[in-house]
Design goal:
binds glycine, 7-stranded mixed beta sheet, 14 helices, alpha/beta, globular, two-stranded antiparallel ribbon, Rossmann fold, Dehydroquinate synthase-like, alpha domain
């Protein structure tokens, strides 16, 4: 259990991770190597990275400010300028060392600099290990909307090393649990039950659970890398969840809602919609609510806030022909895609969340 193969790259675990980096660096003879970090990972993760690399190679660290609010074209411009000023060329490598913001923006910067240079993802948060760093989605936010600009382009390697989770705040770990639980909900009831039991007993999922979560996502992406059909299932909870996240990015209340918290609310609401529209058993919808409520506090969202959140649905990336498409569940482990939902059912889901 030390490697998962994607189409154009591998996800290497633990001791196999940095060995994979050594091999690529020896083989590819890069003209220059850059490591993209944010202000946090520069402090916490660069010292670990330096200890972990056994081949010595020169690299230049490029730092952007920490936080989703910096996942912008302005940050890209700064990094592109640094790459240019430091002699970056088409044979340069960009290593993205950080959470989802760094792997998303770094992948986008690398994919567009000189029409594309190699990049490697070293995710340092649980959320980016099990989601953002896998599957080739890269991009930035635009206005208040998440991931509106981007390309799908694979890294050359993803390194999963749990050493980086040691400095991760619990709030950020919990954000990753949401995506792991989602992987169970959309594809594997046994996996869902295993992770839920661990979390309800306040135990911490380890390397096996992380490996299996990435395996589930990778299999879905292998089937449909460009999200024409099956990959859409990864958006369960995200239609409402992204609207909540986008709304609170710009709001005075609940400003610090993590991605995982937002999509947990989304998954509870969409579980109720699934009960209403796809005959998901109400006991399963209640089980989903119970598990997420054992991880996150209930966020008191007012009706007027919820109405504003609904208005964000029209910007959802999955929309086509002016319609918002949902991923719903027939059962835990059995998703259905491209379902349109009347506002009334969304409101009922919202009431279920608050009840
Ligand atoms: N985060 C969902 C996806 O990669 O498709």
């Amino acid at each position: 259990m030390n490697q998962i193969n994607a189409k154009n790259y591998s996800v290497n675990f633990e001791e196999n991770g940095f060995n994979g980096l050594d091999i690529i660096i020896k083989k590819k003879l890069y003209s220059s190597i850059f490591v993209l970090v944010d202000s946090n990972t520069n402090k916490e993760c660069i010292p670990v990275f330096e200890k972990k690399i056994s081949t010595s190679f020169d690299f230049k660290v490029i730092e952007i400010e920490h936080g989703e609010e910096n996942k912008t074209i302005r940050s890209c411009e700064k990094v592109w300028a640094t790459l240019s000023d430091s002699g970056g060329d088409r044979k340069s490598l960009l290593i993205n060392l950080g959470g989802g913001v760094i792997t998303d923006i770094g992948g986008f910067i690398a994919s567009t600099f000189k029409r594309g240079i190699d990049f490697i993802n070293i995710p340092t948060t649980l959320l980016s290990m099990v989601d953002a760093s896998i599957g080739g989605k890269t991009g930035i936010d635009f206005g208040n909307l998440k991931n509106q600009i981007g390309v799908i382009n694979d890294p050359k390697l993803v390194i999963i090393d749990l050493v980086f989770l040691k400095s991760l705040p619990i709030k950020e770990l919990k954000s990753g649990y949401s995506e792991m639980l989602k992987h169970g909900l959309i594809s594997d009831k046994k996996y869902w039950s295993g992770i839920s039991t661990l979390l309800m007993e306040k135990k911490i999922p380890g390397i096996n659970e992380i490996f299996n979560s990435i395996k589930i996502k990778n299999e879905i992406v292998l089937d449909d890398p460009y999200e024409k059909h099956k990959r859409k299932v990864l958006n369960f909870g995200h239609t409402i969840g992204h609207a909540i996240e986008s709304f609170f990015m710009d709001s005075k209340t609940h400003k610090n809602l993590t991605h995982g918290e937002s999509i947990a609310i989304g998954m509870i609401i969409e579980a109720h919609i699934s009960f209403n529209i796809c005959k998901l058993d109400i006991s399963e919808a209640k089980e989903i609510k119970k598990v997420f409520n054992s991880i996150f506090n209930i966020v008191k969202i007012s009706e007027s806030e919820f109405n504003q959140i609904l208005s964000f649905l029209k910007f959802d990336k999955k929309n086509s022909h002016g319609k918002t498409n949902f991923v719903l569940l027939k059962k835990i482990g059995s998703p259905v895609i491209d379902i349109q939902v009347p506002d009334k059912k969304i409101k009922e889901g919202f009431e279920f969340y608050l009840s």
